[in-house]
Amino acid sequence: MSSGLxxxxxxxxxxxxxxxxxxxxxxxxxxxxxxxxxxxxxAITHLYSIGQSVRGQQLxxxxxxxxxxxxxxxxxxxxxVANMHGNEVLGRVVLLQLIDDLVRGYRNNETWSLQLLNSxxxxxxxxxxxxxxxxxxxxxxxxx
Length: 144
Description:
This protein is an alpha+beta fold. The protein is built from five helices and four strands; from the N terminus they run ααβββααβα. It has one domain (3-143): Aminopeptidase.
């Protein structure tokens, strides 16, 4: 799939009804969502942690593809990372929506999702800085 088609598809994602509510999610909600997606789709997902934040929160990555648990020679791998800085939160929402759309598309036998997940292993880290998100959310809440 060309990058132009992928971009167009990602733009269309937001016009379709999604099972995941398109809003900001706190860290426990993200963790619960990733656990649920992984448990519901074991053939195409693998949830793993790359460590912990300074405050001990797991840094969860969801791998998606035909072989989500292992690298396969000749199959490209992509990594998407969001929320590197605590106040950069939109990427969290976008990556959760991408997960939702990829999984639903695969389950519904949508050609674009089948082609992408059958030919690529995708790693998604929705929040690289969960502590920073918590801190920025606390600051924002006290200002409101």
